[in-house]
Amino acid sequence: ELPENWTDTRETLLEGMLFSLKYMGMTLVEQPKGEELSAAAVKRIVATAKASGKKLQKVTLKVSPRGIVLNDSGTNELIENVSIYRISYCTADKIHDKVFAYIAQNQLNENLECHAFLCTKRKMAQAVTLTVAQAFKIAFELWQAAKEG
After folding, report:
1. Distance, CA of 127 to CA of 98 (rounded, Å)
2. What is the distance between the alpha carbons of residues 137 and 140, in angstroms, rounded to a whole number?
3. What InterPro entries does the entry give (predicted)?
4. For residue 36, how many other CB atoms are within 10 A of its CB?
5. Do the strands 17-29 and 99-105 form a parallel or antiparallel pair, or are they unpaired?
6. Nearest Cα to 103, choosing from 93, 73, 7?
7. Could you tell me which of 79, 93, 137, 90 has the C-alpha nearest to residue 113?
C-alpha cells in the first residue's frame, strides 16, 4: 500500500523505493521510446512468458535517482543495476494493465531492451511508473545543480 502523499516523499526516493514484482522477461526493441513500441514489446514478453510455462522470478525493484536496481527476492542476488541515464522510457501497459515496463540501453552492446514486470495490481504498475518518472525528475535536478555548482 502506498501512503497518500508518497509522491512528496522526495527523501524516500533519494534512498530508493522498493517494489516487489515478478520479472516477466526482456525483448529487444528498435527505438528508445514510444507507446506502441513498448506495447508491442510487452505483448511479446507476455506471450513468451506464458508459453514457457515457467514460474516468474520474484524480484525486488529499487527505484532511485541513480536508476533501477533489480535483486532476486529469494536470494537477494543482484540481477541488474540500470543507470537512470540509460533508461529511455517507462510505462504501465494499457492492455496488460498490471505490467510495468521500461526500455533501457544495454551497457555492453548498446542494444535497446524492453524489460517487463508483473505487478500485483494495476495501481502498483502505475505507482512504479510514477516513481521512475519522479526519479528522473530528481536526477535531472541534481544534475542541473551539479552543473551550476
Report:
1. 11
2. 5
3. Adapter_Engulfment-Domain (IPR051133), PH-like_dom_sf (IPR011993), PTB/PI_dom (IPR006020)
4. 8
5. unpaired
6. 93
7. 90
- The pLDDT, as a whole number, for residue 22 is 98
Is residue 58 a part of any domain in this protein? yes
Domain count across the chain: 1
Does residue 103 register a pLDDT over 70?
Answer: yes
Q: Please say whether the beta carbons of 130 and 16 come within 8 A.
A: no
Q: What is the pTM of this model?
A: 0.89
Q: Using an 8 Å Cβ cutoff, are 17 and 64 in contact? A: yes
Domain containing 112 equals: 17-148
Is 6 within a domain? no
Cell of 120: 500485483
Looking at the domain assignment, is residue 101 inside a domain?
Answer: yes
Taking alpha carbons only, the member of 21, 36, 57, 30 closest to residue 129 is 21
Give the pLDDT confidence score for residue 125 in this predicted structure. 96
Whose grid coordinates read 504501465?
92
The answer to whether residue 3 sits within a structural domain is no
